[in-house]
Amino acid sequence: MFWQVIAANKRNTVILVVTMGVVLALVGYFAGTLVGVWLGMTAYGPEPASGGTNAGWVGMGVALLVWFVLLLAALLGSDELFLGLAGAKEVSHDTYPQLFNVVEEMKIASSLPAMPRVFIMDDPAPNAFALGKSPKNCAVCVTAGLLAMCDRDELQGVIAHEIGHIVNRDALYLGVAATMLGAVTIISDTLLRSLRYAPVARYRSSGTKGGRGLVNVWFILVAFVFIIISPILSRILYFSISRRREYLADATSARLTRYPPGLASALEKIMLSPSILTTAPRVIAPFYTVNPYKQDLEGGLFATHPPLPQRIRILKAMATGAAFRDYVKAYWDVTHTRKQLIPVADMQLGEAVGIRAPSPKAPEQGRAGDIIRAMNDFVFIPCSCGMTMKIPPEFARGVVQCPRCGQDHTVERPAKGAASGILAGASAFTRQSPGEEQTEQRVIGAWQTLTCRGCGKNIPLSPVFNLTRVTCTRCGQLIRLT
Question: Residue 276 in 3-state DSSP?
Answer without folding.
Answer: coil
